[in-house]
Specification:
Keywords: Coiled coil. This is SPFH domain-containing protein. InterPro entries: Band_7/SPFH_dom_sf (IPR036013), SPFH_YdjI (IPR033880). It holds the Pfam family Band_7_1. The protein is of the alpha+beta class. It has ten helices and twelve strands. The strands form three sheets. The chain has a five-stranded antiparallel beta sheet with strand order 5-4-7-2-11. Strands 8, 9, 10 and 12 form a four-stranded antiparallel beta sheet that branches. A hairpin with a 4-residue loop joins strand 9 and strand 10. The protein starts with a helix and ends with a helix.
C-alpha cells in the first residue's frame, strides 16, 4: 500500500447514489474504502433509502431523504496506527445498500410452467398458461436484505419479475382446482383470478419484505393439445345434437359421415352408383323403425336430413318418392 493510498483512506467520505438506475431495487454502493471514517456523510435522496451494514450487521435502515452523519470506530490516522500489525487495516467495515422506495408499476409476468386442472364440462385434464402485470414496492428493506439478498450486490426489477412469476403456479393451480371453471367461462372470471392470486401471492412476498400493490391476470391461454381435444369433443357434441333433431342415434350419424367422406374421396367407393345405392340403403335403415309414423312427419325428417347435409339430393329424392308411393 502506497503512502498516497494510505492518506486517501484517512479522509472522511461522502456517500450517495447519484445515478440511480430505474431498473434496480437494491444496489450496493461502491466506495473508495469500506473503512468509513467517523463523521463521514451519507446522502439519501428522495425516492431512495439505505440499509447501513456495520461490522457485519444491519445497523440502520434509513428511509427519509436527509444528510446523515456516520458514527464508526475508524478515526483518521489513529485507527491505522493502532492496526499496524494488520497492515493498518481496520476490522470495522461499513457498507451501504441503497434501495428504491418508489413503487414499480406495470411489471409483466407469466406462468413459469404450465398449470393443469380437470375441466368440469368436458371431464378431461386441461393445460393452460396465464399472464398479466403487477406493481410492487419495498415495504421492509431490512427484512428483504436479510431474507432475500444476503451478499447480492444488485437486485433488479427483472429479479422481482422472476420471483413473482415463480410464486404464481402453485396458488393458480390450487384456485382452479377449487373453482373448476369451465373452459368457456375462464375469461369471464379473470377479475376473480386476479384478486385471489394477489391475496395469496402478497402473503408470501410480505415475508420477504415486498408489498404487492397491484396484481392483474390479463389473459389465459390453453395449449394446442387441449384445444384440439376440446374441439373434437365439441364437434361430436354438435353432431349428437343434430342427430337428436331428426331422431337419429350417434351410430347412424357416423354412418352418414362415412358416406360423406367416401363421396369426397373418389377412391373410397367403386363409383357414383355405389355411393347412391349405399345412401339409399342407409336411409332405409334409418327409417325402418319409423314405418308406422305419419308420412308427413317422415317427409319432414327426411327434409331435415337434407338441410343438415347428412344425405345427398339424389338420396333425398329417391327416399321421398318411396314414401310418397306408400301413400
Amino acid at each position: 500500500m502506497g503512502l498516497r493510498d494510505l492518506f486517501k483512506r484517512q479522509l472522511r467520505t461522502v456517500v450517495e447514489w447519484k445515478e440511480q438506475d430505474g431498473q434496480l431495487l437494491f444496489h450496493l454502493m461502491e466506495t473508495t474504502t469500506d473503512e468509513i471514517k467517523n463523521a463521514s456523510k451519507l446522502i439519501v435522496a428522495p425516492g431512495q433509502g439505505c440499509v447501513v451494514v456495520y461490522d457485519g450487521k444491519v445497523s440502520d435502515v434509513l428511509t427519509e431523504p436527509d444528510v446523515y452523519s456516520m458514527e464508526t470506530s475508524n478515526h483518521p490516522f489513529i485507527t491505522s496506527l493502532l492496526n499496524l500489525a494488520q497492515r493498518s487495516e481496520s476490522e470495522h467495515k461499513m457498507r451501504f445498500y441503497f434501495f428504491r422506495t418508489a413503487e414499480v408499476v406495470n411489471v409483466l409476468w407469466g406462468t413459469a410452467s404450465p398449470v393443469k386442472y380437470i375441466e368440469p364440462d368436458y371431464k378431461l385434464p386441461v393445460t393452460l398458461g396465464a399472464c398479466g402485470n403487477f406493481s410492487i414496492k419495498i415495504a421492509d428493506a431490512g427484512r428483504m436484505f436479510t431474507t432475500l439478498l444476503g451478499t447480492i450486490s444488485n437486485y433488479s426489477v427483472a429479479d422481482a419479475q422472476e420471483l413473482v412469476s415463480s410464486r404464481i403456479v402453485a396458488p393458480l393451480s390450487s384456485f382452479l382446482a377449487e373453482k373448476a371453471y369451465p373452459y368457456r367461462e375462464v375469461d369471464s372470471h379473470l377479475m376473480d383470478l386476479s384478486n385471489e392470486l394477489k391475496e395469496r401471492t402478497a402473503t408470501e412476498l410480505e415475508q420477504l419484505g415486498l408489498e404487492l400493490t397491484d396484481f392483474r391476470v390479463n389473459s389465459v391461454t390453453f395449449d394446442e393439445d387441449t384445444m384440439e381435444r376440446i374441439g373434437r369433443i365439441a364437434n361430436m357434441t354438435a353432431e349428437q345434437r343434430a342427430a337428436a333433431e331428426v331422431d337419429l342415434d350417434y351410430v347412424s350419424m357416423q354412418k352418414l359421415e362415412a358416406l360423406r367422406d367416401a363421396a369426397r374421396n373418389e377412391g373410397g367407393m367403386a363409383g357414383a352408383g355405389l355411393q347412391l345405392g349405399a345412401g339409399v340403403q342407409l336411409a332405409k335403415d334409418i327409417f325402418k323403425t319409423q314405418a308406422t309414423e305419419d308420412s308427413t312427419e317422415r317427409l319432414r325428417k327426411l327434409k331435415k336430413l337434407l338441410d343438415e347435409q347428412l344425405i345427398t339430393v339424389e338420396e333425398y329424392e329417391k327416399k321421398k318418392n318411396e314414401i310418397i308411393s306408400q301413400l
